[in-house]
């Protein structure tokens, strides 16, 4: 069946990004594949990352980790958003490492007496996940029923080179490692860096880096770190859709809900078969599509299943033609970064919110 839209995922780009990131850090690499691999497909990207040299996989949810194991992933997997009350026995049975960020979770895991593999998550200044107020009490507990594999924390401002908070978090991480060492616990896998920290400098790589956005070929922050191209990253996702319809309209035609746009001259409009139900941000202003070597801007509001673009009066595009919504930008098409700017968002959100109605096709990009 021909699709009306598709996200083409180039697994060779994923492999290339893994090589670059491994060379940049010089330590083991955890491919972060949470949230359906940032919209790229959990199982496919998990297996491809393993094949391409990733040493670990990282996910938020236990069910994501179990899906990876069920589909044959063999390398270690860490799940870090596993709350008290979760099925810690299932985690152990599937050989999944879990992050522990509270005494409540630690107590449940210890009670199983399975020597479960845990990574202690510490809050070094982001004030989100990890031990903070419970830390001193945690250090007094009995660790004999678990295997402490790792200790980790997460940067809040890694994409801001020179930012003082990064140094504060690094020092705090080192001091919490020392707290653990003082009670005889020395986790072999210490990890702190996300994509931005990995690309930015080497001071915080420790034993493992956890890279998400860069794995997919996108920059953690175009303004402070440069775009994909300047970083040597290859965007893995190309989003394409069909022109459902092309129509010639006169000047003065109101377009879309609320008639927020009115054509200023005679032109040809294209109806693109994707909408906000597919993850096209309704607020997007100034993005559009690419066809026949040219960009065509969005005109009017994005609807649930469709949006309209102004192809221009000379366009020869036809109903049924494919257009590129975003790609790596090499041919002049919009990028995920352009869509992020147009939507007051970040590239992370643009790719992650591409909806489940859009099939992921594992194949090279097409032009
Ligand atoms: C999402 C996440 C990462 C990956 O972050 P990127 O900026 O995408 O590299 C790393 N560590 C944790 C704990 C995360 O939640």
Topology (elements, then pairings):
Blueprint: E1 5-9, H1 11-25, E2 28-32, H2 34-38, H3 42-51, E3 56-59, H4 62-70, E4 77-79, H5 88-93, E5 97-100, H6 103-111, E6 116-121, H7 135-138, E7 146-152, H8 164-182, E8 189-191, H9 195-200, E9 208-211, H10 222-225, H11 228-231, E10 237-249, E11 254-255, E12 261-262, E13 267-272, E14 288-291, E15 294-297, E16 307-310, E17 322-326, H12 336-342, H13 347-352, E18 360-362
Parallel strand pairs: 1-18, 2-3, 2-9, 3-4, 4-5, 5-6, 6-7, 7-8
Antiparallel strand pairs: 1-10, 10-13, 10-17, 11-12, 13-16, 14-15
Helix pairs in contact: 1-3
Bound molecules: pyridoxal-5'-phosphate (PLP).
Describe the model.
- Helix content is 28%, strand content 23%.
- The model has no long low-confidence stretch (mean pLDDT 97).
- Helix 1 (11-25) packs across helix 3 (42-51).
- It is built from 13 helices and 18 strands.
- The chain has helices at residues 11-25, 34-38, 42-51, 62-70, 88-93, 103-111, 135-138, 164-182, 195-200, 222-225, 228-231, 336-342, 347-352; strands spanning 5-9, 28-32, 56-59, 77-79, 97-100, 116-121, 146-152, 189-191, 208-211, 237-249, 254-255, 261-262, 267-272, 288-291, 294-297, 307-310, 322-326, 360-362.
- A hairpin with a 2-residue loop joins strand 14 and strand 15.
- It folds into two domains: 11-217, Alanine racemase (TIM Barrel, Alpha-Beta Barrel), CATH 3.20.20; 237-363, Beta Barrel (Lyase, Ornithine Decarboxylase, Chain A, domain 1).
- The protein has 367 residues and is an alpha/beta fold.
- The strands form four sheets. It has an eight-stranded parallel beta sheet. Strands 1, 10, 13, 16, 17 and 18 form a six-stranded mixed beta sheet that branches.
- The chain binds pyridoxal-5'-phosphate (PLP).
- Pyridoxal-5'-phosphate binds next to helix 9 and strand 9.
């Amino acid at each position: 069946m021909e699709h009306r839209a598709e996200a083409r995922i180039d697994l060779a780009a994923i492999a290339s990004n893994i090589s670059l990131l491994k060379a940049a850090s010089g330590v083991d690499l955890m491919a972060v594949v949470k949230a359906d691999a940032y919209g790229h497909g959990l199982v496919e990207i998990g297996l491809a990352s393993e094949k391409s040299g990733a040493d670990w996989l990282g996910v938020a949810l236990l069910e994501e980790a179990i899906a990876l194991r069920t589909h044959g992933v063999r390398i270690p997997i860490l799940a870090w958003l596993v709350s008290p009350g979760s099925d810690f026995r299932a985690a152990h049975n599937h050989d999944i490492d879990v992050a522990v960020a509270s005494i409540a979770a630690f107590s449940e895991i210890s009670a199983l007496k399975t020597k479960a593999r845990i990574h202690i998550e510490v809050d070094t200044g982001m004030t989100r996940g990890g031990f903070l107020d419970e830390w001193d009490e945690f250090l007094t507990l009995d660790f004999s029923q678990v295997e402490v594999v790792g200790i980790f924390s997460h940067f809040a401002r890694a994409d801001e080179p020179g930012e003082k908070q990064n140094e504060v978090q690094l020092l705090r991480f080192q001091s919490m490692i020392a707290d653990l060492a003082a009670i005889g616990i020395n986790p072999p896998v210490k990890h702190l860096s996300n994509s931005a920290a990995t690309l930015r400098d080497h001071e915080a790589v420790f034993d493992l880096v956890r890279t998400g956005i860069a794995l997919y070929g996108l920059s953690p922050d175009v303004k402070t770190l440069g775009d994909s191209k300047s970083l040597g990253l290859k965007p893995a996702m190309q989003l394409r859709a069909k022109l459902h319809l092309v129509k010639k309209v006169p000047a003065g035609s109101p377009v879309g809900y609320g008639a927020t746009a009115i054509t200023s001259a005679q032109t040809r409009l294209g109806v693109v078969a994707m909408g906000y139900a597919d993850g096209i941000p309704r607020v997007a202003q100034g993005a559009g599509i690419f066809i026949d070597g040219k960009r065509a801007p969005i005109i009017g509001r994005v609807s649930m299943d469709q949006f309209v673009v102004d192809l221009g009066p000379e366009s020869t595009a036809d109903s049924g033609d494919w257009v590129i919504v975003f790609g790596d930008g090499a041919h002049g098409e919009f990028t995920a970064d352009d869509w992020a700017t147009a939507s007051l968002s970040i590239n992370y959100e643009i790719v992650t919110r591409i909806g489940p109605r859009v099939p992921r096709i594992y194949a090279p990009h097409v032009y």
